[in-house]
Amino acid sequence: MTHEESKANPMEHEAKSLLIVEDDQRFADTLTAEFRDRGYRVEWLDSLKSVRSHGSLDFRYAVVDLRIRQDSGLDVIATIKERSPETVVIVLTGYGSIATAVKATKLGATAYLTKPVDADEIERALMGDDTDEDIPIPDEFQSLYRHEREYIEFVLAECEGNISQAARRLGLHRQSLQRKLRKYTPN
């Protein structure tokens, strides 16, 4: 395709454009190489600030890590969807929680994948291919204790560490929340 042809039909050129928002450079480099080999135009950003200051977020697809240094991937999703509502967003996380999965979905993410994950799984999610019904649900998703802990951590993070505010949101007494937090913290 010549330069003039790509200008005449920009959507054809952008059909396989991918934004990766990930703070782990090694993982981002691996994903970038994998998707470039598959014919994608890939751009990598490593912070919420770089996403917000990026000139254009007109990507067909985005892969967003849930935790990007001190930033939340949820804020990244909101920024991307605000500026480019048609972008298909996939969220990656080191550990899954129902609360963050629900919030990511409400913000516009189409899939929520738990690391470790490979390029094939990510590409299937980007394409909306949910045919892997035989994938077993990991034990950690079965644990009520783990879900409670992750939800409490999520609410506490949303309250910027303010235990009183988090306790109110959770419908707990402050002392009860502190006891639960001590229980989750190894000595």
List its salient traits.
single chain, 187 residues, alpha/beta, Rossmann fold, Arc Repressor Mutant, subunit A, 10 helices, 7 strands, disordered N terminus
TL;DR?
The chain has ten helices and seven strands. It is an alpha/beta fold and 187 residues long.
Strand content: 15-25%
Q: Order of SSEs, N→C?
A: HHEHEHEEEHEHEHHHH
What overall geometry do the principal axes of the alpha carbons give? elongated
Q: At the third CATH level, what is the topology name of the largest domain? A: Rossmann fold
Number of helices: 10
Radius of gyration: 19 Å
Distance between the termini: 62 Å
Catalogue the unreliable spans.
Answer: 1-13, 131-137
- Report the major sheet: 5 strands, parallel
Helix percent reads 40-55%
Looking at the overall shape, the CATH architecture of the largest domain is 3-Layer(aba) Sandwich
Helix-strand category = alpha/beta
